[in-house]
Design goal:
Elements lengths: L5 H13 L18 H6 L7 E3 L2 E5 L5 E6 L5 E3 L3 E2 L2 E6 L14 E4 L5 E2 L13 E4 L6 E4 L2 E4 L4 E4 L8 E3 L6 E2 L11 E3 L6 E2 L12 E3 L7 E2 L12 E3 L6 E2 L21 E2 L11 E3 L6 E2 L6 E3 L5 E3 L4 E3 L5 H6 L2 E2 L4 E2 L3 E3 L1 H12 L2 E4 L2 E6 L2 E7 L5 E3 L3 E2 L2 E6 L11 E3 L6 E2 L12 E3 L6 E2 L12 E3 L5 E2 L12 E4 L4 E2 L12 E4 L5 E2 L15 E4 L6 E4 L2 E4 L4 E4 L8 E3 L6 E2 L12 E4 L4 E2 L12 E4 L5 E2 L12 E3 L6 E2 L6 E3 L5 H9 L9 E3 L4 E3 L5 H9 L3 E2 L2 E4 L2 E4 H6 L1 H39 L1
Parallel strand pairs: 3-6, 4-7, 6-8, 7-9, 12-14, 13-15, 14-16, 16-18, 17-19, 18-20, 20-21, 21-23, 22-26, 26-29, 32-35, 33-36, 35-37, 36-38, 37-39, 39-41, 40-42, 41-43, 42-44, 43-45, 44-46, 49-51, 50-52, 51-53, 52-54, 53-55, 55-57, 56-60, 60-61
Antiparallel strand pairs: 1-2, 2-3, 5-6, 10-11, 11-12, 24-25, 27-28, 30-31, 31-32, 34-35, 47-48, 48-49, 58-59, 62-63
């Protein structure tokens, strides 16, 4: 991911020290966009240099002249159209010499010039005020002393000493050539919307340039050293189109103290922001490659690169930014140790630092909108009653990490608290119980993160619950959210101990866009939904949608072995019965749609009664149901997802083979998925289930019907219909005769009883 070759690092150090002298020495310079005729003629050997008066030239393969050097001391230099009778068609990369201090104030180019080296031979002309081009030249044009290609799509050179402190690059220009606006007097540059490419050193050493607004351009790449040594540059706006910021692009821009990187950025090159004024950078998730010393480094008085120990990197967990923050390579003497923060954490810290804090007893607090917010609590009380008022101010909020160092076992919040901020009770390692008030309206993300002894929690009056508020609460068993309307994502991540969950009947969102918010609830036994107008309901611990047409969740640890879905249920949601530990039999005979992973991993499931009206069965719906040996399907089935039934994970498969399956390479090792031993399906020929099973080599039994709970061949059932009917008739006749005889035998006895009664 990161480029920190020892050679590259050495070259980078060298280049940073010499870059201010001239861009043409840059070893970072990419290959020229065009190849000169002289270069083509020379092949691997250097062309012979011919000296003619003040000019040195070489011959191209067309036997025309390429100017390689100039010793003239004229202020107004004119390039001849011929030398020694040979047409002058090219300017080499050192056409005007390799030393600064050249006297040229104007340079005139003849009509014969066809090619100018992409390394920009004008970069040493530090007195140049104007470039003039013969009007009949077919390849180049000068506009107000600025050199362009003839079609004006590329700006070749803006003279370093051209008068004026502002310049608007014309619309239509798509490329700023190498060192094209290098070391000028400009303090303001306007960039066109047509601009797509900024080449290396294009805007380097513009010591008066204070801002660069590229936000309205179409630039996708900012080249090597593009803005290097722009010592006054304090504001840079980047376009959404930007994908790459190349090596040393903003190196030594010491006034650049902040910059917003676009969301589509993919590459940040070596030393891109070395020795700038940045103390923190926010790196978008799109960035996949960060070069050696890209940011967080400065150049000391000995011209050596040194890391800034106070530099802060903000990004997502698992991102390139996090890796760069601690990236180490002993072989190349490369070691980063920067502070890394996720965006939410950075916002909290920045906000906390801006607060004016006060101390009262065991509490630290700040005043926000005339009310007290708790920012820290160091109480050691076993039971802590948080005050509703501090120094005459109503306590309304608990701020991030406020109780992180509190050692109380029980905390009671007052009926004045309306907000619990992010990570407010983070890592309260002794906290076993907390009482939240009805006045509470919002609990933000990770509020109780890592409270490992907390066993139960009622969220009080909170209507909004943030993300991952129970992250790492490994002892939590009972959760009640009686008023919550909106509940965040990954609520039970790293918190699989919850057994009983109560949800408000007014809840309209659980888990945001996550369709499977309960996957981590491996201990969950029951879900209860209170009354309300929300989107959920419950019955016997099972979670449904409001009208009970869909099962959302059958708790994984629910101990019932058998389950029969209500007749109203037409759909089983994604992962609804995922890894249920005890379920052996499921009657879902009214269900028409089985979503993906519906019964995945139900290893004790032996029987599943499907509906004749079943239309869809999603991917992996019964994957891994090892005890399930058969399923019956009917002709209304319209869709079957991959791995829907009959398969399980092969425990003998190795990771290398899984990789080969992903990459498509051949491998003779064990397959990832295998058929469940003894599994078969009952389905008619030409049905979707039959065709699917045939492709998967799953055994099929066809031409059968379900009769009295048994699968009977249609030929036997209907061919022997007369025999079965006679048997039934005989059985009924025998039953009738038996009853008649019994009644007949009972008559004498009854007669005797009646006579005896009459005598009495």
């Amino acid at each position: 991911m990161f480029k920190h070759k020892k050679v590259a690092a050495f070259i980078l150090s060298l280049l940073i020290s010499v870059s201010a002298v001239s861009p043409v020495y840059s070893a970072f310079a990419e290959g020229e966009e065009e190849t000169s005729a002289a270069d083509e003629a020379s092949g691997e050997e250097e062309s012979e240099i011919i000296v003619s008066g003040e000019f040195s030239y070489s011959l191209t393969h067309d036997n025309t002249a390429c100017i390689e050097d100039c010793s003239s001391e004229e202020k107004n230099l004119v390039i001849p159209d011929t030398i020694d009778g040979i047409a002058v068609t090219e300017l080499g990369k050192l056409a005007f010499g390799s030393d600064i201090g050249k006297p040229y104030e104007t340079i005139t180019l003849p009509a014969s010039i066809e090619y100018i080296s992409s390394d920009n031979p004008f970069s040493f002309c530090d007195s140049l005020k104007e470039i003039i081009v013969d009007s009949s030249n077919e390849n180049y044009i000068a506009v107000d002393g600025v050199l362009f290609t003839k079609d004006k799509s590329k700006l070749v050179c803006y003279p370093q000493k051209k008068t004026g402190n502002s310049y608007s690059i014309p619309e239509g220009v798509s490329v700023l050539g190498e060192a094209s606006i290098y070391n000028t007097q400009l303090s303001e540059i306007t960039f066109p919307s047509t601009l797509k490419e900024i080449s290396y050193f294009a805007l380097g050493s513009n010591s008066k340039l204070t801002s660069a607004d590229l936000s309205k351009t179409a630039v996708s790449s900012i080249g090597l050293y593009a803005f290097t040594d722009c010592s006054a540059l304090s504001s840079v706006l980047l376009p959404d189109s930007l994908y790459e910021i190349a090596g040393a692009a903003f190196s030594r821009c010491k006034k650049l103290s902040e910059i917003t990187l676009p969301d589509n950025l993919g590459i940040i090159g070596q030393a891109a922001f070395i020795d700038t004024g940045l103390s923190k950078i926010v790196v978008p998730d799109s960035v996949s490659e960060i070069g050696y010393s890209a940011f967080g480094y400065y150049i000391d008085e000995n011209n050596e690169q040194k890391p800034d120990s106070s530099f802060i990197i903000v990004g997502s967990y698992g991102s390139a930014a996090q890796t760069y923050a601690t990236d180490t390579d002993s072989e190349y003497d490369y070691e980063n140790s920067f502070e890394f923060r996720v965006p939410e954490q950075d916002e909290q810290i920045t906000e906390q630092q801006s607060l004016e804090k006060r101390t009262f007893g065991d509490y630290e607090y700040a005043v926000v909108n005339g009310e007290a917010v708790i920012t820290a609590c160091l109480s050691a009380d076993t039971v802590l009653n948080v005050p509703s008022e501090i120094e005459g101010l109503t306590v309304t909020a608990v701020y991030p990490a406020a109780f992180q160092y509190c050692t109380s076992e029980e905390i009671i919040l007052p009926e004045t608290i309306t907000l619990i901020r992010e990570m407010a009770f983070y890592n309260c390692i002794n906290l076993k119980k907390i009482e939240l008030p009805q006045s509470l309206t919002e609990i933000r993300s990770n509020a109780f993160d890592s409270c490992t002894l907390l066993k139960s929690l009622n969220t009080g009056g909170a209507t909004t619950i943030g993300n991952q508020i129970f992250y790492g609460c490994t002892s939590l068993e009972t959760v009640e959210m009686p008023e919550a309307v909106t509940i965040g994502t990954e609520l039970f991540k790293e918190c699989s101990s919850v057994k009983n969950l109560t949800i408000s009947g007014n809840c309209t969102s659980f888990g945001g866009e996550d369709e499977e918010p309960f996957l981590n609830c491996t201990s969950l036994e029951s879900v209860t939904v209170t009354s309300g107008d929300g989107i959920y309901s419950s019955e016997n611990g099972v979670l449904f949608n409001k009208d009970k047409t869909a099962i959302v969740l059958y708790p994984q640890a629910k101990k019932d072995k058998k389950y029969k879905a209500p007749k109203s249920v037409k759909e089983i949601g994604p992962s609804a019965f995922y890894h249920c530990k005890y379920l052996e039999s499921a009657d879902i005979s009214g269900v028409e749609i089985l979503r993906d992973y519906a019964f995945e991993g139900c290893e004790k499931l032996k029987k599943a009664k499907l509906s004749k009206n079943l239309k869809q069965i999603g991917a992996d719906a019964f994957y891994g149901c090892k005890a399930l040996t058969s399923l019956r399907f009917y002709d209304k089935l319209e869709y079957i997802g991959e791995g829907a039934f009959g398969e399980c994970y092969n425990e003998n498969a190795d990771l290398d083979n899984i990789d080969s399956e992903i990459t498509g390479t051949d491998d003779e090792s064990e397959p990832h998925d295998v058929l469940i031993e003894g599994f078969k399906i009952y389905a008619d020929k030409d049905s979707m289930a039959y065709d699917y099973a045939e492709k998967k080599n799953i055994p099929i039994v066809s031409n059968t019907v379900l009769f009295l709970g048994l699968n009977i061949h249609k030929g036997i059932l209907f061919g022997g219909a007369g025999v079965i009917a006679a048997f039934i008739a005989a059985f009924i006749t025998k039953l009738i005769v038996s009853k008649a005889k019994k009644k007949k035998s009972e008559k004498p006895e009854n007669k005797q009883k009646e006579d005896k009664k009459d005598e009495e």
